[in-house]
TrEMBL record:
Domain of life: Bacteria
Region of interest (Disordered), ranges: 185-206
Entry's EC annotation: 1.5.1.38
SUPFAM superfamilies from the UniProt entry: Flavoproteins
Pfam family, one: FMN_red
GO molecular function: FMN reductase (NADPH) activity
Enzyme class (EC, first level): oxidoreductase
Residue ranges constituting the NADPH-dependent FMN reductase-like domain according to the UniProt record: 6-155
UniProt KW keywords: Flavoprotein, FMN, Oxidoreductase
Protein name, per record: FMN reductase
Organism name: Nocardiopsis sinuspersici
Length: 206
């Protein structure tokens, strides 16, 4: 059985960061669900702050260099992508958007993607729906139904003690695993190379 590769993209800027923490938990949940299905899993985690200069260079030259090149190669071969950003000004961070601006959209076409975001207040939870989901819809990715937003209070404070966040993470991980299992690697668009009209008509001759 082929190994399933998960590429996790974290746009956190601090060390440690809640964005990386959420990314790691989403990755663990997805990997666990795949392993329960009998799959082997390989994980590649990318901290965007570590390749920030290369991202800027690629935006201005359109040529990926340095550590960014292997990151993009890994992304193009991934069976699924987990993408997590902090919320800046009620949207994804500039670093997060810049990275996906230099990713070839064809590399995300049909790719299962799990989206996540972190912020200081629950008020920004809709960032998943008004910013991240439309961005990945534009690249024709297959986005898991459950996205996970984690505010500061979700990490264990309050009556829920973090249980609600854990439940969302587990559900999102299961959904991503299902999408990975359903995906046929390398399957092309059946309408991309249609049968020529002349060939269709050739069988109609008397």
């Amino acid at each position: 059985m082929a190994t399933r590769t998960l590429v996790t993209v974290s746009a956190g800027l601090s060390t440690p960061s809640s964005t990386r923490l959420l990314a790691d938990r989403l990755t663990a949940a997805a990997a666990r669900s795949l392993e329960e299905r009998g799959e082997d899993v390989e994980i590649r985690t990318v901290e965007l702050r570590e390749v920030a200069h290369d991202i800027v260079n690629a935006m201005t030259t359109r040529v990926p260099t340095g550590e960014l090149r292997p990151v993009l190669e890994d992304l193009s071969r991934a069976d699924a992508v987990i993408a997590v950003t902090p919320v800046f000004n009620a949207s994804y961070s500039g670093l997060f958007k810049s990275f996906f601006d230099v990713v070839d959209p064809e590399d995300l076409d049909g790719r299962p993607v799990l989206i996540g975001a972190t912020g200081g207040t629950p008020r920004h939870s809709l960032v998943l729906e008004h910013a991240l989901r439309p961005m990945f819809a534009h690249t024709r990715s297959v986005v898991a139904p459950t996205g996970v937003y984690a505010a500061s209070e979700d990490w264990g404070a309050g009556e829920g003690g973090g249980r609600e966040l854990s439940a969302r993470i587990d559900r999102a991980g299961r959904q991503l695993a299902m999408l990975v299992d359903e995906r046929v690697p390398g399957a092309g668009d059946p309408y991309e190379e249609p049968t020529p009209f002349a060939d269709l008509m050739s069988g109609l001759g008397g």
